[in-house]
Write a structure and sequence with these properties.
Length: 543
């Protein structure tokens, strides 16, 4: 099994986005496309000979084929040992857990997360470093630079490795070890949460529904919620992972998780509902007829962290992405712990966690997590909620409303305009940016603009600077409008408008968010010239 050196030519579009390289499956299937990117990773990370790598993905279409290529390339590039999830399956948080637990050099995760899958859908690939977290920008940039100059890649000419049974095989001197996809992750969860208390809650008649959206969390949710915690098998819906996610859009929000939303808002709704995304790192939390915004969920978890065994010592600090609401900031202030504001994407939390500066992190995009791994973690958030519910024994809605009564409510919503022509979307951003001088100090209805800026972040640990991470319009009363272009889409551009207003008055906490934010939504349209520039009247998705 000799190493083959295959000549190739660079592709110009292999720049990783918010979370790895995402393209249509057909793009990845083109000759040399995947191989070029994998070789660029290997060239950029310079792993010492004999290093160990973790490989796994969310099971979407092309997962197995890509893994076979990666294994043969890893062997040709001098890796000594690869841990692969059974049938190529590892959720993103499970991959992070395995990288850390076995102290490997890093891992390659195959996922396009919430993007649809299937032959006409999306595929994605990213590299995580030895801390289990997404590669920081200096590494993704080095990979991109390499991808533009690559002239050859190395691969072994060998038959495919069997991935459907646990055990070890050898591939040109490299050990391929197929591991159980869920065991390590489940063991980690058992160290963090009071499984006995949750078991008692579920035995007391408390009803829950978890929607795996035919994505990777099905087997994890079954192993934990059903096998360990005693929920009925029917509590986990859409539990079988499918390569095309059953034709759905595995994004756990009110629009795409509609099966679950109907049940949770129906006549005989369960007490608790949750959903996860394609690769298992996102979560949506619902109560009976009640939706918990991800920003509120993070704040609430931070406020009640001491109720949960893994966090009983308290939390060192918290971090949120810039567009995430400031609800958690209020909790941090009361707990007298630091609160960091980072750009969008989990890669910015890693340094803070490694340095012990933060324990909990979150994003408005249904991502919550802690320093137990270095990725956001959907089932972890579900278990955190169940643990809190097991102790408080109150409805989800009551818990959230009491939190608002105590801290005030950061009314929040995100409006996404998907598949816009890139030039129009870029035009909106540039127009708002160019308007900063006239916007500052402007009075618009009951709001006065205090400042406007392009968010820039200096990492407090390594000093690296990330610029142009979203446009912020900040109002005198603490309200905000943020404009940002998505870095995970594969077709056209997605413009995200994030809206936030602070409401201290508990008598107004019952208001619907869209209603409460009505005036800010109008202002966002006005200052961005959205309708004129994009022709769109309504967002594609509201969360
Ligand atoms: C989106 C979210 C961001 C998240 C990223 C990856 O990025 O906004 O908060 O970290 O997806 O999540 P963007 O650039 O499209 O706004 V996942 O679960 O798709 O890996
Ligand atoms: Co995801």
């Amino acid at each position: 099994m000799a190493v083959q050196i295959i000549p190739t030519q660079p592709f110009s579009d292999q720049k990783p986005g918010t979370s790895g390289l995402r393209k249509r499956v057909t793009v990845f299937q083109a000759p040399h496309y995947l191989e070029n990117f994998v070789q660029s990773i290997f060239d950029a990370i310079k792993a010492p000979a004999g290093s160990t790598l973790v490989v796994g993905g969310d099971g979407r279409f092309y997962n197995i084929e890509a893994i076979q290529i990666i294994l043969k390339m890893a062997a040709a590039n001098g890796f000594g040992h690869v841990l692969v999830g059974e049938n190529g399956i590892l959720s993103t948080p499970a991959a992070s857990c395995v990288i850390r637990k076995y102290q490997t050099f890093g891992g390659i995760i195959l996922s396009a997360s919430h993007n649809p899958g299937g032959p006409q859908g999306d595929f994605g690939i990213k590299f995580n470093t030895a801390n289990g977290g997404p590669a920081p920008e200096k590494v993704t940039e080095a990979i991109f630079v390499r991808s533009k100059e690559i002239t050859q890649y190395k691969i072994i000419d060998a038959p495919d490795v069997a991935l459907d049974a646990l055990g070890e095989t050898e591939l040109a001197g490299m050990k391929v070890e197929v591991i159980d996809s869920v065991t390590d992750y489940v063991e980690l969860m058992e160290t963090l949460f009071d499984f006995e208390a949750i078991r008692q809650l579920l035995a007391s008649g408390f009803r829950l529904r978890f929607d795996a959206m035919h994505a990777v969390t099905g087997p994890y949710a079954r192993a934990i919620l059903v096998d360990r915690l005693g929920a009925e098998a029917s509590a986990v819906m859409n539990a079988v992972p499918l390569p095309d996610f059953g034709g759905g859009h595995p994004d756990p929000n009110l629009t795409y998780a509609h099966d679950l939303v109907e049940i949770m808002y129906g006549a005989d709704a369960p007490d608790f509902g949750a959903a996860s995304d394609g690769d298992g790192d996102r979560n949506m939390i619902l109560g009976k007829h009640f939706f918990v915004t991800p920003s509120d969920s993070l704040a609430l978890i931070a406020a009640d962290a001491r109720l949960v065994p893994g966090y009983v010592q308290g939390i060192a600090g918290v971090a949120r992405s810039m567009p995430t609401s400031a609800a958690v900031d209020r909790v941090a202030e009361e707990l007298d712990i630091p609160c960091f504001e980072t750009p969008t994407g989990w890669k910015f939390f890693g340094n803070l966690m490694d340095a012990g500066k933060v324990t909990l992190c979150g994003e408005e995009s249904f991502g919550t997590g802690s320093d137990h791994v270095r990725e956001k973690d959907g089932l972890w958030a579900v278990l955190f909620w169940l643990n809190i519910l097991a102790i408080k024994r109150q409805p989800v809605e009551t818990i959230v409303k009491r939190h608002w009564a105590r801290f005030g409510r950061n009314v929040y919503s995100r409006h996404d305009y998907e598949e816009l022509p890139s030039a129009a979307a870029q035009g909106v951003i540039e127009h708002v940016r160019a308007s900063f001088p006239v916007l500052e100090g402007k009075v618009l209805g009951r709001y006065t603009i205090k400042t406007c800026d392009d968010f820039s972040y200096t990492d407090p640990v390594d000093g690296s600077v990330s610029q142009k991470q979203g446009i912020r319009i900040l109002f005198e009363d603490g309200s905000r409008i943020v404009f940002r272009l998505s870095g995970t889409g594969t077709e056209g551009a997605t413009l995200r408008i994030y809206l936030e207003a602070f409401e201290p008055n508990a008598s107004k906490h019952g208001l619907d968010a869209q209603e409460a934010l009505g005036e800010l939504i109008e202002i966002a349209h006005q200052i961005s010239e959205l309708k004129q520039r994009t022709g769109r009247e309504q967002p594609t998705v509201i969360t």
